[in-house]
Design a protein that fits this description.
The protein is α+β, with helices and mostly antiparallel strands and 65 residues long. It is 38% helix and 34% strand. A four-stranded antiparallel sheet has the order 1-2-3-4, with no helix packed on it. A hairpin with a 2-residue loop joins strand 2 (44-49) and strand 3. The chain is rod-shaped, with a radius of gyration of 25 Å.
């Protein structure tokens, strides 16, 4: 009896796993950009975010393409 319950549990877990993998294969993932530090010198730090460049100084922040 315990073996049958154990095998039934494994079967249900397998079906659930296949279902989740099937659903996730149809969803499209959007590309996520991360802010990366490029350089830092004399109080000025340059970051990159996708196609944007971010320049940060002690008193200001500038964003450009």
């Amino acid at each position: 009896m315990k073996t049958q319950k154990f095998l039934a549990g494994i079967g249900l877990l397998s079906i659930f796993t296949v279902l989740v993998l099937t659903i996730s294969s149809f969803t499209t993932a959007e590309k996520t950009d991360f802010i990366t530090k490029k350089s830092s010198r004399d109080g000025i730090t340059v970051y990159s975010y996708g196609e944007y460049i971010i320049v940060k100084s002690d008193n200001s922040v500038s964003v450009s393409r």
